[in-house]
Design goal:
This protein is mainly α. The chain contains 7 helices and no strands.
Length: about 120
Amino acid sequence: MTTDDKYEIGRAKLRDVHGERSLETIEALGDLGRMIIEVAYGDIYSRPGLSLRERQIATVAVLTALGRSSQLPIHLRSSLSAGLTVDELREVILQTAVLAGFPPAMNAWSTLKTIAAERD
C-alpha cells in the first residue's frame, strides 16, 4: 500500500469517525495533519482487529488518563455516534479514574456532562 493509499483510506475513516469539519481542520495542519490522517486513521483506525466502538472506548480512556481535555470532546461525541451511551462513557471514565487518578477523570466527567446536556 502506498502512502497516497493510506492517506485516502485515512481521510475516509476520519470523515466517518468525526465528520467533514474535523477532516478539514486536520488537513489544515499541513504535514502534521497528513501524518495524523495516514497513521492514526489510515493505519490504526482502519485495522480490522477492533470495532470503531471498541477503539473509541480505548481512546476515551487514554485521553482521560492523559488529561487531554482539548481532544476529549470530539472523541466523546464520536463515541456517542459509534453507539456508546452516556452511561457507558461514564463507566469508561470511572474505570480510568481508578488507574489514572481522580483529577483527570473529574475533568472528563465534566466534559461528558456538557456534551450530554447538548444532546438533550
